[in-house]
TrEMBL record:
Chain segments annotated as coiled-coil in the UniProt record: none
Matching Pfam families: YceI
Protein name per Swiss-Prot or TrEMBL: YceI family protein
Family per similarity comment: Belongs to the UPF0312 family.
SMART domains per record: YceI
InterPro entries: Lipid/polyisoprenoid-bd_YceI, TTHA0802/YceI-like_sf
Lipid/polyisoprenoid-binding YceI-like domain location: 9-178
Length: 181
């Protein structure tokens, strides 16, 4: 549980946060990438975690996996359709303290114009006052989605019988948020 004195409204810091994903490629390795934050806010209520909330907007056009050609392909209609849907959004609909420093954040994830409920297990990782005197709070967590639920169906069958890209995608969150003054 985070301390009572952290109750307040926060801005998620894009320079110190990461919104990542992991997909199995050719069923033998994992490809990792990230999508930059456009905007993000969080309201923390230590006395009543259910009154807490979070909202993030990610910029699909900035997707990065370390391979320029793969990044360009992920922006096409085969995958995230950045031209038609340049943002991925998440807005919480509920927050539950599930013990210790762990919280389940339930909300609506929207990709490619398709919204689905997801639950993210987040862990409070600490608090610090940064070099500018600002209170900073951290959370990290993951959830797994099925990309087909969001209309992302592109794939290729391998000669060995498997497929090129897994349906299950792990979403990773490393969040640093600064309390608004």
């Amino acid at each position: 549980m985070y301390p009572d004195d952290l109750t307040g409204t926060y801005t998620i810091d894009p320079a110190h946060s990461r919104f990542g994903f992991v997909a199995r490629h050719a069923m033998v390795t994992k490809v990792r990438g990230s999508i930059p934050l456009t905007e993000g806010t969080a309201v923390l209520d230590a006395g009543d975690p259910a009154a807490s909330s979070v909202r993030v907007v990610l910029d699909v056009t900035g997707i990065r996996t370390g391979d320029h050609n793969r990044d360009a392909h992920l922006r096409t209609g085969d995958f995230l359709d950045a031209d038609g849907h340049p943002s991925i959004t998440f807005g919480s609909t509920g927050v539950e303290h599930v013990g210790g420093d762990r919280f389940e954040v339930t909300g609506e994830l929207t990709m490619r114009g398709v919204s689905r409920p997801v639950t993210i297990l987040l862990e409070y990782t600490g608090t610090a006052v940064d070099a500018q005197g600002m209170t900073r709070v951290g959370f990290e967590g993951t959830t797994v989605i099925n990309r087909r639920d969001f209309g992302i169906t592109y794939n290729a069958v391998l000669e060995t019988g498997g497929v090129m890209i897994s349906e299950r995608i792990t979403l990773e969150f490393d969040l640093s948020a600064v309390r608004n003054t």
